[in-house]
Amino acid sequence: MTLAPPDPSSRIIPAAEMAAAFAKGGSFIENSEYRVGLARREGGGDAEVHDKDTDIFYVFEGAATLILGGEMVEPKSVGPNETRAASTRGGDTKTVAKGDVIVIPRGVPHWFSAVAEAPFVYL
């Protein structure tokens, strides 16, 4: 059996780099295949839908109200394959909290309408 060399895009993110990401939020790994970001919220945000990306979140801290599905209210394109709106009509309301994993397939409108326990931090 021939062992393959490690892929050059393999990466270990040191704890110090993760701590800095937790403090400010935002993308910290991005390439043509995927984007890894960390979000820190004190309040709700915009509704969004992605045409090509599936969101996978792990909640590190806090709790929030997540609305999945429904119809975007006055949607606007904000970039390639990305639409946002101030809210949605309808959809399922869920409470998400520390330790939860959230999977949102492409094409599904979603938004954190409120933060119940701040800060709400997710990767």
Account of the 3D structure:
- With 123 residues, this protein is mainly β.
- The chain contains one helix and eleven strands, in the order H-E-E-E-E-E-E-E-E-E-E-E.
- The strands form three sheets. Strands 1, 2, 4, 9, 10 and 11 form a six-stranded antiparallel sheet that branches.
- Strand 6 (76-79) and strand 7 (82-85) form a beta hairpin.
- The chain is globular, with a radius of gyration of 16 Å.
- The mean pLDDT is 91.
Question: How would you summarize the topology of this molecule?
Answer:
Layout: H1 15-24, E1 26-30, E2 35-41, E3 47-50, E4 55-68, E5 71-73, E6 76-79, E7 82-85, E8 87-89, E9 92-97, E10 101-104, E11 110-122
Antiparallel strand pairs: 1-2, 2-11, 3-7, 4-9, 4-10, 4-11, 5-8, 6-7
Largest sheet geometry: 6 strands, antiparallel
Order of helices and strands: HEEEEEEEEEEE
Low-confidence stretches: none
Radius of gyration: 16 Å
Estimate the strand proportion: over 45%
Q: How much helicity do the residues have? A: under 10%
Number of alpha- plus pi-helical segments:
1
The span between the termini is 37 Å
Query: Any idea what the shape is?
Result: globular
> Which structural class do you get from the secondary structure elements?
mainly beta
Mean pLDDT: 91
Number of strands: 11
